[in-house]
Specification:
The structure holds two protein chains of two kinds. Helices cover 58% and strands 11% of the residues of chain A. Chain A contains seven helices and four strands, in the order ααααββααββα. The chains are: A alpha+beta, B mainly beta. The interface between A and B is medium-sized, with 28 and 23 residues.
């Protein structure tokens, strides 16, 4: 019965805590949110498993973690420089159909990955890409060329494929 | 964007925002969570010990114990009995109330318990020389949440007994 009570308490405590943190989708976690969510089970598990024996210890640990996440997001919202430091800045990988090699090497992104993302967006030639940007969350955003959004393959290209 | 060539190479930046602190109503309630680590830093949830003392003409008793500690944590309860008279005391019986002790898992009791009655656990101290002290040590592990009250009593034949009240809060 105690285990049930302890797990229930931890469940509601975490639920309320995470709800109050904000309404971001879990698929778009920032690095600090990801670290927090990975750490919370470690902090809580001992108390739930009764190895540490103290529920108050787990509550203190989780509250501390949530407070740090909250304060980090508050400071980074108020101070754009802090936000850039915490979340990083987007990197331009392709500009006007040209691969930016320096950025690709720094970010360790291969041209094949760029093309893979282009294909998902319905693009198949590099000159169809106005910008490819590696965003702070690790995803590649593609902005098609304004007047060449999606072109049909030419007759030659069709034969080649 | 500082020049035309850069403007063509980089996408436009996001517009400026007047950044300020704003919360939903339910998030304001969550600010109370910030108090927990602060209180923890101030030692609110830590173990707290105390020393209490009482005496009669012939006996003095000092008890050192935890007034607050966490669930399943082991803490010492030390009862120090001093013979204040100029005569040796052959036997002092120290009693700890069951109301209090039963809230813990007893790990060790030194000297060992000699009797368990409906109301107390009894330990005997023998041959306490004049002006000297002897101690009873109990290692108690918090077993039940909440506040627990009890007493400790020391008595010797023909001498006035001394007693102290104990109160311990165990965090979940």
């Amino acid at each position: 019965m105690q285990t049930v009570l302890r797990v229930t308490m931890i469940y509601f405590f975490l639920f309320i805590g995470l709800r109050i943190m904000g309404k971001r989708e879990f698929g778009q976690l920032s690095p600090s949110e990801l670290i927090s969510l990975l750490l919370i089970p470690e902090l809580v598990s001992q108390s739930v498993l009764q190895e540490d024996f103290s529920l108050i210890n787990a509550i203190i640990a989780v509250t501390t973690l949530l407070s740090l996440v909250f304060l980090t997001s508050l400071i980074s919202h108020l101070k754009p420089k802090v936000q850039k430091f915490i979340s990083g800045e987007p990197s331009i990988l392709v500009a006007h159909g040209t691969l930016i090699e320096k950025s690709l090497n720094k970010e360790r992104v291969s041209p094949e990955e760029i093309f893979s993302e282009m294909h998902k967006a319905g693009l198949y030639r590099l000159d169809q890409v106005r910008w490819a940007i590696l965003e702070s969350d690790g995803r590649i955003a593609l902005i098609p060329a304004a007047d060449d959004t999606i072109q049909s393959p030419s007759a030659d290209e069709k034969r080649a494929t | 964007m500082t020049n035309a060539s850069t403007a063509t190479l980089e996408p436009p930046e996001a517009p400026e925002l007047q950044r300020k602190v704003a919360f939903y109503h339910y998030q304001v309630i969550g600010l109370a969570f910030l108090l927990v680590p602060i209180l923890a830093l101030l030692g609110m949830f830590d173990k707290s010990t105390t020393h209490i003392r009482t005496e009669s003409d012939e006996l003095s008793m000092e008890v050192s114990y935890a007034t607050r500690h966490r669930y399943k944590m082991i803490n010492d309860l030390i009862v120090s009995i001093q013979n204040r008279s100029d005569q040796p005391i052959p036997l002092v019986t120290v009693k700890l109330s069951r109301d209090y002790v039963d809230q813990f898992s007893i790990v060790t009791f030194t000297p060992a318990i000699v009797r368990i009655t409906d109301s107390d656990y009894e330990v005997e101290i023998r041959d306490v020389a004049a002006g000297t002290s002897q101690i009873v040590r109990a290692e108690l592990r918090g077993e039940h949440y909440g506040e627990h009250k009890g007493w400790v009593n020391a008595a010797a034949a023909g001498l006035e007994a001394v007693a102290l009240e104990l109160t311990t809060f165990i965090y979940p």
